[in-house]
Specification:
Shape: elongated
Strand order of the largest sheet: 2-1-3-4
GO molecular function, one term: DNA-directed DNA polymerase activity
Structural class: alpha/beta
Pfam family, one: DNA_III_psi
InterPro entries: DNA_pol_III_psi, DNA_pol_III_psi_sf
Protein name: DNA polymerase III subunit psi
Oligomer: single chain
Number of strands: 4
Number of helices: 6
Keywords: DNA replication, DNA-directed DNA polymerase, Nucleotidyltransferase, Transferase
Radius of gyration: 19 Å
């Protein structure tokens, strides 16, 4: 039914728009990024920031828990489009749509037992060290 409607609108030269965030119409509120946040951790099930491996990574990045925000991909989509912040994707197949350095690793449970994945994460941190160890203001 909608394909016929789409075809008719196309024939009449009417441009259809698609909402990027249709959930916003259902009352979901957008998420804002507080100024002190220096890293966004994105995972299907965000890990607790008190996890020992997470704490080790944050210590290596010279960050404290209050400078980190853990979100699901759905919550990340609620951030404003112009958000710029380094991110760490845990177990996601695709990179996230946010400006800034992006670290990627397997899910936390796998990262604990995979030395190669840990090494790759540390190499990424080293590669993006200027993004993590500077106080440049976010745009």
């Amino acid at each position: 039914m909608s394909s016929r409607r789409d075809w008719l609108l196309q024939q009449m030269g009417i441009t259809q728009y698609t909402l990027r965030r249709p959930r916003a119409l259902h009352g979901e509120v957008s998420i804002s990024l507080p100024e002190q946040i220096r890293l966004i951790i994105v995972a299907e099930t965000p890990p607790p920031l008190t996890d020992p491996l997470i704490r080790d990574v944050l210590a290596a990045l010279l960050m404290r828990e209050h400078e980190v925000m853990a979100l699901t991909p759905e919550q990340l989509a609620m951030l404003p489009d112009d958000t710029r912040c380094p991110s760490w994707c845990l177990g996601l197949a695709e990179p996230v749509a946010i400006d800034g350095a992006q670290l990627a690793s397997p899910v936390l449970a796998e990262l604990y037992h995979n030395a190669d994945a840990k090494r790759a994460l540390w190499q990424q941190i080293t590669h993006y060290e200027s993004d993590f160890f500077t106080d440049a203001a976010r745009s």
